[in-house]
Amino acid sequence: MAQVIDRDEASALDLLGASGVHLHVLPEGAADASDVIVAAALLDGERQIRAEVDIPVPDDVDAGMGAWHVNAVDEIHVVASGQGIMEFVTVDGIVSIVVGTGDVVEIHGAEHRYRPLTEQRWLLRFGGPADGELLATQTGRAAGPWPPV
Q1: What is the pLDDT of residues 5-54, one digit of tens each?
Q2: Is 42 buried (19+), middle (13-18) or exposed (0-12) by CB count in 10 A?
Q3: Is 68 within the bounds of a domain?
Q4: Does the pLDDT value for residue 64 go beyond 90?
Q5: Contact criterion met (CB below 8 Å) for 21 and 110
Q6: pTM value?
Q7: Residue 43 within any structural domain of the chain
Q8: Is the CB of residue 12 less than 8 Å from the CB of residue 94?
Q9: What burial letters (b/e) apply to 71-110, b meaning 16+ CB within 10 Å?
Q10: pLDDT at 87 over 90
């Protein structure tokens, strides 16, 4: 499971849950999120994989998905390979996690940012029309330093 940075895991998971973020782990040998996770998070017609993306380590760690943003739709992302940091805004400040192969990140409107530590492959699912895109709206929150890993 994703590794929580600088907080105890139980309180971090509670804060994330209250902010609309749920973390899951793929069962041993599974290559994708279970139908149960997907069905609980996305409507029928939105559950297909929308993209498989390879994300390189960025030169500018505070741009793009590295900038604080929100997405207007619910999301489920499976980390198929590699490792990265995700940070989420909660009522008790920022919660930072390291996500790696086998982690499933479910996001429902939470403000977040993301930085690959190694090249990562993600399987992306998200709500909205079948021909829609996962559009991020930057929040303008100052970047601040990334936590050491």
Answers
A1: 999 999 999 999 999 999 999 998 899 999 999 999 999 989 999 999 99
A2: buried
A3: yes
A4: yes
A5: yes
A6: 0.95
A7: yes
A8: no
A9: bebbbbbbbbebbbbbbbbbeeebbbbbbbebbbbbbeeb
A10: yes
